[in-house]
Amino acid sequence: MSSLYRSAISARIAKLPQLPPNDEDDDEQSEIADGIGELSTGMGPPPLTSTRKPKSPNPEFNPLSPASYFSQALQISLPTRALDVRVYYTPPKYDGGGVIVFHHGAGYAGTSFACLAKEISEVMRDNVGVLAFDARRHGKTTSSQSDEDLSINVLVEDFCALLQTVYPDVAAAPNLMLVGHSMGGSVCVRACPILQQHKFNIAGVAVLDVVEGTAVEALPHMHAILNSRPEGFDSVEEAIEWHVNTGLIHNPVSARVSIPSIIVPADSPLTPSTRANIGFKYKWRTPLRSTAPYWDSWFPSLSSLFLGLRSARLLVLAGAERLDTTLMVGQMQGKFWLEVMAGSGVGHLVHEDNPTKLAEILADFWRRNERIVVRGNIIKTVGEV
């Protein structure tokens, strides 16, 4: 990220707490939202208004069930983690088929991958399964103990425990490809060698729109962004509409599936109520301010760990300017496969904005790498040293 670009974004953030914009400011406000979205670590741009105006639900943003995007919705108990994890799963059609495992970013949920999962099932003709889940303190995952700790080591241990529970017989487990968005990308990178030590076959690791350098530089701006974020909503439809109108999610269909999982009724015990969200009918399932103590653990060393993985590596970005120096050097040395989904209608949530294109990328990545993993051994592939 250039110093000029960083200074411009900082200046824009400083100007955010203003009077509500008028219609003539729409283009400028859209540009600001896009810029801030580029700095995001999965938290999204702030709303474009500074005052709340309750309104009736807009039927154009009615929620959609994930039931038509996954074949199963399960609650899987992890006693050693004191978690009851919500899992969305479509198994491969044939025995021996592989599974693509998704880990969402901070504040999101497994349903964030719903449209992508359906696209993958179609392009791979159900020969490859898909599995997404809600991390601790997210979505419909619950805990019998305090689940406040969202440090990277805890999230990695949760992830590994889940896969070991879903596939208790490693010898019979399918080949896996790990795909993580933002914070989830960091979890997948760190979990890969642990799972390999347990003899899981990892065909590849794909990281979606997160780069260590950019993410770390963005962290000081996060509180300014969150201060301008709504504390709650009057309806699920309003929450969906806000995400679409601010440009955080460019695909309304995906938003209608994913957003209902990241908010809860105002009286829900899953998230403590605060004075700020009193008066709203719905509040955030995962208040992102409460995750601030763990931000510094999520991204350090991500680039070097990614390049050091003993598996195929894919990095998918919404814009090429997100590459940091370490990854630029690694890309020039051919150490990983890079795809840039730059263009109209694609932002930080690349998997929601254009699931069709990303499904094609992941399917190609899978086909290139799935059969080079021999049980008990990993054959070097393109980019391996």
Show the helix and strand layout.
Blueprint: H1 3-14, H2 26-39, E1 72-78, E2 83-90, E3 99-103, H3 114-123, E4 129-133, E5 142-143, H4 152-166, E6 176-181, H5 183-197, E7 202-208, H6 212-218, H7 222-227, E8 232-233, H8 236-245, H9 252-258, E9 263-265, E10 282-284, H10 295-298, H11 302-307, E11 312-317, H12 325-332, E12 337-340, H13 350-353, H14 355-369, E13 373-374, E14 377-378
Parallel strand pairs: 3-4, 3-6, 6-7, 7-11, 11-12
Antiparallel strand pairs: 1-2, 2-4, 2-5, 8-10, 9-10, 13-14
Family: Belongs to the AB hydrolase superfamily.
Region (Disordered): 15-64
GO molecular function, one term: protein methylesterase activity
Overall description:
Its EC number is 3.1.1.-. The active site is at 182, 209, 348. InterPro entries: AB_hydrolase_1, AB_hydrolase_fold, PPase_methylesterase_euk. The structure is a single chain. With 385 residues, this protein is an alpha/beta fold. The protein has one domain: Rossmann fold (3-Layer(aba) Sandwich). It is 35% helix and 16% strand. It contains 14 helices and 14 strands. It has helices at residues 3-14, 26-39, 114-123, 152-166, 183-197, 212-218, 222-227, 236-245, 252-258, 295-298, 302-307, 325-332, 350-353, 355-369; strands at 72-78, 83-90, 99-103, 129-133, 142-143, 176-181, 202-208, 232-233, 263-265, 282-284, 312-317, 337-340, 373-374, 377-378. The strands form three sheets. Strands 1, 2, 3, 4, 5, 6, 7, 11 and 12 form a nine-stranded mixed β-sheet that branches. A three-stranded antiparallel β-sheet has the order 8-10-9. Helix 3 packs across helix 14 (355-369) and helix 4 packs across helix 5. The longest helix is centred in the middle third of the chain and has 15 residues, at 152-166. The chain is globular, with a radius of gyration of 20 Å.
